[in-house]
Design goal:
Largest sheet: 9 strands, mixed
Strand order of the largest sheet: 10-9-8-7-11-6-12-14-13
Shape: elongated
Low-confidence stretches: 1-16, 397-401
Distance between the termini: 10 Å
Bound molecules: NADP nicotinamide-adenine-dinucleotide phosphate, zinc ion
Structural class: alpha/beta
Order of helices and strands: HHEEHEHEHEHHEHEHEHEHEHEHEEEH
Helix content: 25-40%
Strand content: 15-25%
Radius of gyration: 23 Å
Mean pLDDT: 91
Number of helices: 14
Number of strands: 14
Length: 401
């Protein structure tokens, strides 16, 4: 899945420079992915310092609030970086209204000759100024090397910066014969142990999770990441127009993660009483506008999730909710698990239908269950049909790429 640098290409004096630049930028992308799950809400960024065709230093952004990729790579250099080229997946930062010092002055002080930048930072405090300041200091700056790949790497960060909503991933499991639940919508264990483990790994990297009320009533899920090394638990959100879920539901009584219920405001006393009861369990209740056909507005729910500083939403939908996201063009990515062994009666509810324009970007066999990732090429934050960093993380040991 992840391209490897061809040593012969780097050492050959005849090799075209773009291929060499591409190979080093791919290495920077690989490094950046190691920050997934710990850098947010910052972007994943990787940096490689190259002198005379050899990598002399590598770095990536490890944790939010800690040094960025560029100073990390410079600090790791095994020789003086003066005259070297830095490959960095995102435009180096130049603004000082943040926790860490800006990277542009550090790159200038290291007397680099050239900086190859994967893509511009959409943050208005940077957006082209970082490149400008490097050029003003006499450093040659190259743009456009793997720019689609670098933007795709930054798609979670771009979503929040440009759209004020989280990046939306829909995830579901379906039986061998395309069903999402048992007959009458009854709860059914579809995934095997390996696929269930992968689901928990995927949950562990997302910062928020959304389900419909139907799923809470039928399945009573906990929606936490379990049996994996979770750095945090995703905040839980439920779409429940009439505030109908039971106060005994696990997501209400469990205190391992926050829960917010989106509902429509009502003047009825039953609404007030139910609201008070749920709030006594520390559940947040947020009123959302219902549209003409009585459904809560998904765009408004996404805005409220972004207001809570969540930028990476995993939706575990039933067929109805999935259709809503597809119809409104709000699904950026899908993770679909297809069982190879479980089959149920034909009367059971069918799995969501994937719109035909979605492109499959990655697939893995999990002891017989097949996990496939799809991206939506019509999404404003789609840049390249490439496997996401999350997928790479689930299928690879983090330190091996
Ligand atoms: N296999 C899996 O991976 C998986 C995952 C999830 C669910 N399921 C199964 O799917 C079944 C439930 O499917 P479902 O689609 O009826 O339930 P759902 O996805 O839980 O959605 C139902 C509720 O979500 C809200 N909703 C749905 N579409 C909406 C839209 N476009 N805009 C706003 N709100 C919307 C509605 O709430 P209000 O009526 O309150 O407005 C609706 O009642 C269950 O049997 C469950 O077990 C399976
Ligand atoms: Zn920086």
């Amino acid at each position: 899945l992840l391209p490897q640098i061809d040593r012969r290409l780097i050492l050959s004096r005849m090799a075209p420079p773009l291929e060499i630049d591409t190979a080093f930028m791919h290495r920077a992308i690989q490094l950046a992915m190691r920050g997934r799950g710990t850098v947010e809400p910052n972007p994943m960024v990787g940096c490689v310092i190259v002198k005379q065709g050899q990598i002399i230093g590598e770095g990536f952004h490890h944790h939010y609030g800690e040094p960025h990729a560029e100073p990390n790579a410079l600090a790791n250099c095994r020789e003086d970086p003066a005259g070297a080229t830095a490959y960095v997946t995102l435009e180096p930062c130049c603004h000082s209204n943040k926790q860490t010092p800006p990277c542009v002055p550090t790159l200038i002080a290291a007397r680099l000759a050239r900086v190859v930048v994967g893509c511009l930072d959409p943050n208005p405090s940077v957006n082209g100024r970082g490149v400008e300041e490097l050029r003003e200091a006499g450093i040659s700056v190259e743009m456009g090397v793997c720019s689609a790949e670098c933007k795709q790497l930054g798609s979670l960060f771009f979503t929040r910066a440009l759209l004020h909503r989280p990046y939306v991933t829909l995830k579901w499991a379906e039986t061998r014969n395309g069903k999402i639940a048992g007959p009458g919508g009854k709860r059914l264990q579809i995934t095997n142990a390996a696929a269930t483990h992968a689901v928990h790994q995927l949950r562990a990297v997302c910062d928020s999770i959304l389900v419909g009320a139907g799923t809470v009533k039928n399945d009573d899920p906990l929606l936490t990441a379990r049996s994996v090394d979770a750095k945090r638990q995703p905040a839980r959100y439920v779409l429940d127009r009439a505030l109908s879920i039971s106060p005994d539901a696990k997501i209400v009584t469990d205190m391992d993660a926050l829960t917010t219920i989106f509902c429509a405001f009502s003047r009825e006393s039953a609404y007030r009483e139910k609201r008070k009861l749920l709030e006594s369990y520390k559940v947040g209740i947020t009123n959302i506008t219902a549209d003409g056909d009585g459904k809560l507005q998904l765009t408004e729910a996404l805005e409220r999730i972004a207001d809570d500083c969540r930028h990476d939403l995993l939706v575990e939908p039933g067929p109805q909710l999935a259709r809503g996201f597809f119809e409104q063009g709000l699904a950026d990515r899908l993770w679909v698990i297809r069982s190879s062994s479980i089959e149920v009666e034909l009367t059971a509810p069918g799995a969501p239908v994937i719109p035909p324009h979605f492109v499959p970007t990655a697939q893995i066999d999990l002891a017989g269950d097949l996990l496939t990732e799809y991206l939506n090429p019509d999404s404003p934050v789609f840049f390249a049909p490439l496997p996401s960093a999350d997928f790479a993380r689930v299928i690879t040991k983090p330190d091996s790429f």
